[in-house]
Amino acid sequence: MYNFDFHRPSTLRQANGLMGKLEDAKLLAGGQTLLPTMKQRLASPGQVVDLGGIPELAGIEQKGRNLVIGAMTTHAEVAGSALVKAALPGLAALAGSIGDPHVRNRGTIGGSIANNDPAADYPGGLLALGATIVTNKRRLAASDFFTGLFSTALDEGEIITKVIVPTGAKFAYAKFRNPASRYAMVGVAVAKKGGKVAVAVTGAGSDGVFRWEAAEAALQKRFSAKALDGVATPSAKNLNGDIHASADYRSHLIGVMARRAVTTASGK
Prior knowledge:
alpha+beta, Uridine Diphospho-n-acetylenolpyruvylglucosamine Reductase, domain 3
């Protein structure tokens, strides 16, 4: 590790002010990515602004037909929330499958989506559910927020404050885990609300999380795992291949995980 200045604001206003005047500053949420990369000297910010002391950025509440989740809410809190379990049990299950107990109790929803790791779980779930990401400057639909590998629509210094997740959908997420990291080699989120179905894939896309439109069209006609029989999975040429799984294998896994997610979401 090397020398840097550490700041711990107690309000969002203070955090905004610091990010507006400090040079070479990075925001610290749960620290599950930033701190390891700093230890490995892959990142070397001169200023670190810790958001952990801002109460207004944490917590979960139901507002009308939406769940409102503060950006600094941990994965464990989402997984254990009675509100989330009642309104969107599949989202609680998704949060409960992230990493290990250490990661779930330190990592935050805001930090996860701001980092937008291509193998992270939340991007697929939020994209399928049609969530809205709220920052200190604006609101962004999930479809506009996730823009590529480790890339989002966030501007420099912009702070995620909360995530708004519509309820009322049949929703489930299934993933094939890397046995060591527990990251998704492939994860598929399926949401059905009214006559609309959304299917989002994480862990596989060469450009990050994406929607699987062919599956959506099939499931809108019949919301059953069997509806995916004969539906071509995304082409391997558009998927990641690495030491853990080839692109062809990931293409196969997308179909398998999608069927599992549909079965869980439909309650069968």
